[in-house]
């Protein structure tokens, strides 16, 4: 029966070598088994880590935005459209960070696609940290300017960098776990056990941050990416963000703001980021006689979910060193 069924196809395709029957069988099996496993797309690295940690071996997790890409400036690629069209679930941070995907999702024709916003229910901090009041010339045109740059952060949505706080990261992990259980209840016990183990590690990390940063309460630092207000709030530090998002160059106004903020807040350090050209910050650090450190917003690095802890440990060391009083 099977051989007869395949025969006409082989004749019709006689120009090309007919696919061996075994291949056909294999690919059918692959489709059958991947149809069985839940297909998940996670938007960027922290969402991937949390999701992968929970999914373990029982679901397939794909990362959309490659490590090291700027999430704020990302533009959708054809492969992303395909991934979203084939997924059962997309895991997003939310707070408008991934609003650039809205259209792709709407146009994907994927009626079965479920979405999780891991920040759902989390009380957001205002998008702009207090020091960075929008300049007057930005006033009315602010939203348009952001659209032009390919990101559309409404101020109402709040600052999206929730994953930088190990406590809120637990809430995000729970939101993702519950979403996975909802679409794939047969693997509930696996998701629960995996999430519990990851949350235990996040709790341990939080204890270390609490303990080790206790002596440096109110330590203020200057960043050029408004990515650390949740981390700062959690551990009684003060982030002074000079620009709203990572910018390719600092304006003379930004430099002026930095100088004023250093004085006003008695800032302990300047924080640049890995993979960013820090030349301007280096000279600023010399001029201000303030040390420049590198802090990691966790959008680059290894795909292993354990990388979150490695990078955060390194951030903890950086914060301790930067906040230590000079003696
Ligand atoms: Zn950011």
CATH topology title of the domain at 215-323: Rossmann fold
**Bound ligand species:** zinc ion
Q: Please report the first level of CATH classification, the CATH class of the domain at 215-323.
A: Alpha Beta
Number of strands: 8
Do you know the CATH architecture of the domain at 215-323? 3-Layer(aba) Sandwich
Taking the sheet with the most strands, its summary is:
4 strands, parallel
CATH superfamily of the domain at 215-323: Nitrogenase molybdenum iron protein domain
List the helices and strands and how they pair.
Blueprint (H helix, E strand, L loop, with lengths): L1 H11 L8 H16 L2 E4 L2 H11 L4 E4 L14 H9 L2 E4 L9 H6 L6 E4 L24 H7 L17 H18 L4 H26 L6 E4 L5 H6 L3 E4 L10 H14 L3 E4 L6 H10 L3 E3 L12 H17 L4
Helix pairs in contact: 3-7, 3-8, 7-8, 8-12
This protein binds zinc ion.
Structural write-up:
The chain is of the alpha/beta class and 327 residues long. It has a domain at 215-323: Nitrogenase molybdenum iron protein domain (Rossmann fold, 3-Layer(aba) Sandwich), CATH 3.40.50. The chain is 46% helix and 9% strand. It contains twelve helices and eight strands. The chain has helices spanning 2-12, 21-36, 45-55, 78-86, 102-107, 142-148, 166-183, 188-213, 229-234, 252-265, 279-288, 307-323, and strands at residues 39-42, 60-63, 89-92, 114-117, 220-223, 238-241, 269-272, 292-294. The strands form two sheets. It has a four-stranded parallel beta sheet, with helices on both faces. The protein has a four-stranded parallel beta sheet with strand order 6-5-7-8, with helices on both faces. Strand 1, helix 3 and strand 2 (60-63) form a beta-alpha-beta unit. Helix 7 runs antiparallel to helix 8 (188-213). The protein starts with a helix and ends with a helix. Residues 136-157 are annotated as: Disordered. Keywords: Signal, Transport. InterPro entries: AdhesinB (IPR006129), Bact_metal-bind_prot9 (IPR050492), Lipoprotein_PsaA-like (IPR006128), ZnuA-like (IPR006127). Pfam families: ZnuA. GO terms for molecular function: metal ion binding.
């Amino acid at each position: 029966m099977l051989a007869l069924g395949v025969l006409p196809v082989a004749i019709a395709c006689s120009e090309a070598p007919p696919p061996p029957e075994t291949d056909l069988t294999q690919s059918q099996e692959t489709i059958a088994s991947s149809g069985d496993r839940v297909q998940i797309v996670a938007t960027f690295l922290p969402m991937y880590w949390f999701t992968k940690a929970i999914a373990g071996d029982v679901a397939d997790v794909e990362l959309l935005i490659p490590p090291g890409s700027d999430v704020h400036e990302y533009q959708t690629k054809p492969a992303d459209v395909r991934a979203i069209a084939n997924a059962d679930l997309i895991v997003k941070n939310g707070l408008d960070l991934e609003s650039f995907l809205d259209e792709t999702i709407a146009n994907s024709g994927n009626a079965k696609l479920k979405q999780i916003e891991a920040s759902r229910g989390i009380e957001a901090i205002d998008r702009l940290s207090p020091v960075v009041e929008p300049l007057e010339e930005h006033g009315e045109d602010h939203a348009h300017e952001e659209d032009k740059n390919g990101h559309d952060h409404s101020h109402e949505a709040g600052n999206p960098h929730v994953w930088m706080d190990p406590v809120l990261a637990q809430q995000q992990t729970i939101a993702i776990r519950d979403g996975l259980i909802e679409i794939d209840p047969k693997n509930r016990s696996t998701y629960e056990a995996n999430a519990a183990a990851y949350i235990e590690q996040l709790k341990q990390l939080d204890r270390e941050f609490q303990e080790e940063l206790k002596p440096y309460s109110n330590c203020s630092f200057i960043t050029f990416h408004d990515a650390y207000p949740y981390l700062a709030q959690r551990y009684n530090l003060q982030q002074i963000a000079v620009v709203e998002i990572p910018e390719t160059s600092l304006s003379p106004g930004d430099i002026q703001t930095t100088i004023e903020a250093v004085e006003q807040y008695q800032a302990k350090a300047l924080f640049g980021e890995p993979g960013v050209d820090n030349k301007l910050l280096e000279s600023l650090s010399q001029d201000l006689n303030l040390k420049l450190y590198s802090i990691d917003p966790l959008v680059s690095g290894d795909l292993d979910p354990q990388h979150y802890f490695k990078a955060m440990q390194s951030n903890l060391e950086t914060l301790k060193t930067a906040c230590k009083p000079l003696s």
